[in-house]
């Protein structure tokens, strides 16, 4: 196995996202900047009302209400039965808290590969050895069992960013059971969960198997709240005391107003035939627009079934590498992310330089114009 600190890249994906802020057609970062729907606009108009309501609400009550609303949104009865939950400002804060915890316990972990590089970078910064496990290796019983024996934890990104790969229920159960059998911690980054219909309950599975687990969520990938977001972290009883101590060293709480606003967005999304049905239609229409404009050969094979709000794409064979491609399209006024950094343990090797990633969740005009420019460039 190859440890992460052998291949730390000097320029990170977040650096490229920062550059994207200065480019007219920014399709680089995966944050939700699409327009509010008509129903969401009604929430925006009620901000003063929400402010005054949350002003009177005790923080513990606000947190409990937020968790209850989120549990409803993901159709999870298991969330209410976890040993302990806490709310952090962002998913990156959750990753760093997990990294601090693993570092404190001198633990090594497997980490999904490829995936967004900040997970590996934060683990590295905290001195946690991380080793890559590919999506196919995760569902290979022989490989998983062998490699779990060499680490203390499995850090799973599901659904995965950038490919959108989302485990089936039986695959998830198998991975959980393997971690349980090997007496390993399973850590789950579920930041992109809300892009998929919630037809089975990961919390219920983790609780019923009496697993040792940490799992965290993110609202910032889905709801267009101008980066007003929160990351819910939950864990089994064996982790709660140390995680709570580390949390309390840095955080007191998340804004009650933020939790109140997000809870309103959850409630609005829950209406309709099923949770998030309207949002899923918005994402599907944008993906359809992109795939109608751009030849299917430019969609990475591992992302053909993706439902998440980013698209993992291929650069034409024998063409530019990913960094040159990013520079060329920047000159045309479009920002995208290079693919190499997602391959966090082997950044820059030839097999990591053939991809780029774009976001679907931008203002519609910016998204469509950016995709049209990319389509024309890729065609020629």
Summary of the model, kept short:
The protein is an alpha/beta fold and 380 residues long. It is 44% helix and 13% strand.
What is the CATH superfamily classification of the largest domain? Type I PLP-dependent aspartate aminotransferase-like (Major domain)
Domain unit count: 2
In round numbers, the mean pLDDT is 95
Q: What does the main sheet amount to?
A: 7 strands, mixed
Question: How would you classify the helix and strand content by structural class?
Answer: alpha/beta
Topology:
Elements: H1 13-20, E1 25-26, H2 38-45, H3 47-55, H4 59-73, E2 84-88, H5 91-104, E3 109-113, H6 118-125, E4 130-134, H7 135-138, H8 141-148, E5 153-157, H9 169-181, E6 185-189, H10 202-208, E7 213-216, E8 231-235, H11 237-250, H12 256-270, H13 277-293, E9 310-314, H14 322-331, E10 334-335, E11 337-338, E12 355-359, H15 364-379
Parallel strand pairs: 1-10, 3-4, 3-5, 5-6, 6-7
Antiparallel strand pairs: 2-8, 7-8, 9-12, 11-12
Describe what this molecule looks like in 3D.
- With 380 residues, the protein is an alpha/beta fold.
- The chain has two domains: 122 residues, Aspartate Aminotransferase, domain 1 (Alpha-Beta Complex); 215 residues, Aspartate Aminotransferase, domain 2 (3-Layer(aba) Sandwich).
- Helices cover 44% and strands 13% of the residues.
- The protein has 15 helices and twelve strands.
- A seven-stranded mixed β-sheet has the order 2-8-7-6-5-3-4, with helices on both faces. A three-stranded antiparallel β-sheet has the order 9-12-11. A two-stranded parallel sheet has the order 1-10.
- The longest helix has 17 residues.
- The radius of gyration is 20 Å and the shape is globular.
- The protein starts with 12 loop residues before the first helix and ends with a helix.
